[in-house]
Amino acid sequence: MSSKEVARIIRVDHAGEYGAISIYSAQLFIAKFFYRDIVNQLQEMLQHEKQHFSTFDDWLKCNNTRPCYALWLWPLGGYILGLVTGLLGRKSIWVCTGAVESTVLHHLDGQLNYLSRHSKSAYQTVLSIKKDEEEHLNLGLQKGSDSIVYLPIQIIVKYSTKFAIWLSMKL
Ligand SMILES: [Fe+2]
Ligand SMILES: [Fe+2]
């Protein structure tokens, strides 16, 4: 059996992937109408997030661990974030990607540090998604913008992601 903290870690990642699926689904929905040039990239990222979700889902099932009680919050918040950033324009989609993925990666590094000492299976599971998230971050940074205009989006996305992580660690 896994320890309580290990379970909490995988649970929040599981919920986070659910949120990521919703963000990219909402952005994809908008992009199909307005930004056809980025549909393929969004589809690819969405595919990754679906794989990540099932990776964490499998771990939870194999370890008889319940999902997060705040699981419902993630698709709701994710979908709203995705729709709003999608409607604000192509650049803001990538600014959102950069902000989400950098927050996620920062969080993953902290988790990996802990898991390397406490659970080999959980460590491998988290490590297996890192490369994809780094790819997403790079795309976000390349295609986004440092312009001050996008700073509010960056801040809102970053802090809502941090808030959802914080809340999910408690529930
Ligand atoms: Fe992911
Ligand atoms: Fe991602």
Structure described in brief:
Pfam families: COQ7 (PF03232). The chain has 171 residues and is mainly α.
What does this structure look like?
This protein has 171 residues and is mainly alpha-helical. The protein has a single domain (4-170), classed as Up-down Bundle (Ferritin). It contains 6 helices and no strands. It has helices at 4-34, 39-62, 73-88, 90-118, 120-143, 151-170. The protein is elongated. The two termini are 20 Å apart. The mean pLDDT is 95. The structure holds fe (ii) ion (2 copies). One of its GO terms (molecular function) is metal ion binding. Keywords: Iron, Membrane, Metal-binding, Monooxygenase, Oxidoreductase, Ubiquinone, Ubiquinone biosynthesis.
| Main sheet summary | none
* E-strand count: 0
Number of domains: 1
Q: Give the strand content.
A: under 5%
GO molecular function: 3-demethoxyubiquinol 3-hydroxylase activity; metal ion binding
Pfam family, one: COQ7
Keywords: Iron, Membrane, Metal-binding, Monooxygenase, Oxidoreductase, Ubiquinone, Ubiquinone biosynthesis
Protein name: Demethoxyubiquinone hydroxylase family protein
What are the main properties of this structure?
171 residues, mainly alpha, Ferritin, binds fe (ii) ion, 3-demethoxyubiquinol 3-hydroxylase activity, Demethoxyubiquinone hydroxylase family protein, Ferritin-like_SF, metal ion binding, monooxygenase
